Amino acid sequence: MSILVRDVMVRDVASVSIPGSRDDVLKTLQDHKVSGVPVLKKGEVVGMITRTDLLANREEDQTALLMTRDPVVISPDKSIIEASRLLIKHDIRRLPVVDAKKLVGIITVADIVRVAADLGIKEAIQPYLEKETVVLWSETPLAVAGSIMEFAAVEACPVIDRSLKLVGMISDRDLIRASVIEDTVEKTDLSANDGEDTWMWDRIMQSISKYYTVSRIKLKDILVSEAMVPPITAYKKDEVGKCAAIMQKNRIDQMPVVTPGGKLMGMLKDKDILVALVDSMRGTV
């Protein structure tokens, strides 16, 4: 039986409208604890805007100039396999769900990973590993690591030590937590308090929003090893469904795949789970 978008989508969708400002977007992201929202004009979807857009365009204030225009959308009556194919094809993380030109929901990569976990796909992850990945050394200065990630257009990287063993992961969220706000008058430390939830994006954004229009983010003069988080790993023979469940439980979008000796052999990303789901349903939809 085909699972439809309407069965999985989130119906209570946070959104912003144009005309609008960066502050409007930041407040919406904070209030709803999300990393991206549709942009509406007269009730119709005209764009998408994410935290990546905000960080990539630090000097821009208008929502219309920050957003990605003409977003890919989907009907609630389409299958999640069709949604998965669109997400993979266009390399995006969320699809506004539109009915009669009106926004009725949103479906994300994470929503479909949850379905994959529930289905318990038994196939091993090995065919879906990505062996080409950007890797950082634990002793790399954080500012250099940030530039590498920006130029490579990646949001997270595995971290290895001198013996080439995997020792951590670092993401754009970790970079933001280990940063300072530079201003002509003052500096504000945005590093996490002891015990802060690893994924507490709203608190980070709340701090940033106070200064964003008059300040710039600067990474601290520390090493990657001081900002990275412990890795949640997988082995090549682990089942797709098991890895999907781990991603869902830990709210992560990728897992380093290691050898029994702890050396990195590839990455499994949430979109690889979508590819596996599409393969597992081939011939049934």
Describe the structure.
- The structure is a single chain.
- The chain has two domains: 5-119, CBS-domain; 127-280, CBS-domain.
- The chain has helices at residues 5-8, 22-32, 51-56, 63-66, 80-90, 109-119, 142-152, 172-177, 201-211, 240-250, 270-280, and strands spanning 16-17, 36-41, 44-50, 68-69, 94-99, 102-108, 136-137, 156-160, 166-171, 179-182, 187-189, 216-219, 254-258, 264-269.
- Mean pLDDT is 83; it is low at 183-215.
- Helix 6 (109-119) packs across helix 10 (240-250).
- A four-stranded mixed beta sheet has the order 1-2-3-4. It has a three-stranded mixed beta sheet with strand order 7-8-9. The protein has a three-stranded antiparallel beta sheet with strand order 11-10-12.
- It has eleven helices and 14 strands.
- It starts with a helix and ends in a 5-residue tail after the last helix.
- The protein is of the alpha+beta class and 285 residues long.
